[in-house]
Amino acid sequence: MKPITDTELAQIRRFIFEAAGITMSEQKKALVEGRLGKRLTLHGLESFGQYFLMLTSGQHPDEVQVAVDLLTTNETYFFRELKHFEFLRTQALAARARVQPFRVWSAASSTGEEAYSIAMVLADCMETTPWEVLGTDISTHVLKGAAKALYTMERARHVPPEYLRRFCLKGSGEHQGKLLIERSLRSHVLFRQVNLNTPLPNIGQFDVVFLRNVMIYFSDDTKREVVARVIATIKPGGYFFVGHSESLNGISNAVDQVAPSIYRKVV
Known about the structure:
There is one protein chain. This protein has helices at residues 6-20, 29-43, 48-55, 61-71, 82-95, 113-125, 140-148, 161-167, 183-186, 220-231; strands at residues 102-106, 131-137, 150-152, 168-170, 178-181, 189-193, 206-210, 234-241, 255-259, 262-265. With 267 residues, the protein is an alpha/beta fold. 40% of the residues lie in helices and 18% in strands. Helix 1 (6-20) runs parallel beside helix 3 and helix 5 runs parallel beside helix 6 (113-125). It is globular.
């Protein structure tokens, strides 16, 4: 296999932008070689240029998905950015007397830690009010892991002890050092593949949407398109959470900022 050239890197960067809206920097050459190199070997290809032609031929949709999975950065853990979950708790407590379901969308759920963190808060607050969580991601690989709901204890270091006792099963034997999200909590969480860079499927309306630490990879134009799609799914007065290093200022006037990285849809 030949080392990736600057031209081939540009081709791969164009591929992931067109497929997922992700703007990859020119400094990612080693990452691309490391993550995609085995695919070249598997297919008997000598260059990344040949692999790019394979991806763009239209004849290998399964390989396109594999490449997207490999190039998508997925770094998460339970209860990341705790203040968001404290805010979610106040909204859930305020809504628990209503009849209609309280719905939350984890729009870049990766391996599921965010979605299950949301679910723990709702299970703790909602009493008899129905609730549900939708977790989506562009990567089918991480969604398979999310559905299994099996994690290392290290990833759960920020889970409140009470929630660990109520919602998690401690692994033993071959699963020593791991935890499993208990079945009744999992029953409220649905995972499905969604590409935010394309028109959204019919996923309904939400009281709260989490889209955190994803837009840093998007161009401004892509941000505006993605944010417009996401805001269209939020109920009037509902909330939109982004990462602490992200902002919707200049991206949308359909929401007002109510706290750092928390926005409310204009009624």
